[in-house]
Design a protein that fits this description.
Layout (H helix, E strand, L loop, with lengths): L1 H27 L3 H7 L1 H7 L3 H4 L15 H15 L6 H17 L18 H24 L32 H7 L20 E3 L3 E5 L13 E5 L6 H6 L6 H19 L5 E6 L11 E5 L15 E6 L5 H12 L1
Antiparallel strand pairs: 1-2, 2-3, 3-5, 4-5, 4-6
Length: 339
């Protein structure tokens, strides 16, 4: 009985000591997660099985020892902190978002015949077939339109336009010039550059539509606001630097004849190779003309091109043309503007 009493008393003292230690820890450490994060010494204390250490009957660290509530909570917090991944930075999130957007924008179903902006050499067999079929369909529609509304491409009063340009006005040689003027000279087959070969980046063969006193070729740049947007350039075979040079050559006697040829030949070429419709015929002002070889620019009436049409003579001189029979009248109108 005495031994039993002593054992009971010792056990009660042990429980009391454990209880007091738990109370002190609870008061000093309101949040076990804070303790784990900020106090390494206390973390070591919490990792010890203090109930077992206070008992002489169970070896310290034994798996038979039960941890108290504070220890369990601290260990849970420590395990959670160790397993929680570090938050990604804003830049990482932005990169991931960008990647998602890029992937979404690059994966998008399109129609079988959609080849917008794709170079012809990159088209597949089916895409090539569809482009060709669309081209044939467009050609048939234009041919039907031309049959219903034939373009007036006749000469003026049955007289060939070459007769309207005197021999003096038709044989002025190119005198040299900067930039692309030599290329224009070569395309026009002017005598001033007849032995110079070809300086045009695109070559000189298969580029022009040839007429007796002029040549027409397609401009690389396109018009805006109309379809088709093709722009044609027409130059006289005889050399004139710009409209001022044309106005002054041989006392101005060349002006109407050269203008008539340019207007009629450009009109006829546009109607037969681009579309049967009214057009703008424009010269850039000598102040801003980029090529020192006279050329008229022909483009759709409902569109615009390089600041034209305009009523500002510092920019360009333009006339609207709706029929081949208007060529001489429009040449007179243009000559009046140039003066």
């Amino acid at each position: 009985a005495l031994c039993s009493f002593c054992v009971t008393k010792a056990f009660s003292q042990m429980k009391l000591a454990v209880f007091c230690r738990q109370a002190l820890l609870a008061l000093a450490l309101p949040s076990s997660s804070v303790v784990v994060a900020t106090d390494e010494a206390m973390e070591v204390t919490l990792s010890v099985d203090d109930e077992c250490a206070a008992s002489s009957q169970v070896a310290p660290g034994s798996s038979a020892c039960a941890l108290n509530a504070l220890q369990l909570q601290a260990r849970k917090a420590s395990t959670a902190a160790a397993s929680t991944p570090e938050p990604s930075s804003a830049a990482d999130d932005a990169d991931e978002g960008t990647d998602a957007v890029n992937e979404g924008s690059s994966i998008m179903p399109v129609a079988k015949g959609d080849a917008t902006g794709v170079p012809i050499q990159d088209l597949g067999a089916d895409e090539l077939d569809r482009v060709q079929a669309q081209a044939e369909e467009e050609r048939e529609e234009r041919e039907l339109q031309n049959e219903l509304f034939p373009a007036n491409t006749s000469t003026i009063d049955g007289v060939a336009t070459a007769m309207s340009v005197s021999s003096l006005c038709a044989t002025r040689p190119w005198k040299g010039g900067p930039g692309s003027s030599k290329c224009f000279c070569e395309l026009a087959q002017n005598s001033g550059c007849s032995n110079s070969g070809c300086s045009c980046p695109q070559g000189c063969l298969g580029i022009t539509w040839n007429h007796p006193s002029t040549v027409t070729f397609k401009n690389k740049a396109r018009a805006h606001g109309c379809s088709p947007s093709t722009v044609l350039l027409t130059s006289p075979r005889s050399y004139f630097r710009d409209t001022n040079d044309l106005k002054q050559a041989w006392g101005g006697s060349c002006m109407v004849g050269v203008l008539t040829s340019l207007l009629l030949d450009s009109w006829n070429t546009y109607q037969t190779t681009v579309a049967a419709k009214p057009v703008w015929q424009c010269f850039h002002s000598p102040r801003i003309a980029s090529v020192s070889y006279l050329h008229i620019q022909t483009f759709c009436f409902e569109g615009d091109f390089h600041g034209m049409p305009t009523g500002n003579p510092n920019v360009a001189y333009c006339v609207k043309m709706s029929s081949a029979s208007e060529a001489e009248k429009k040449a007179q109108e243009m000559a009046h503007k140039l003066r």
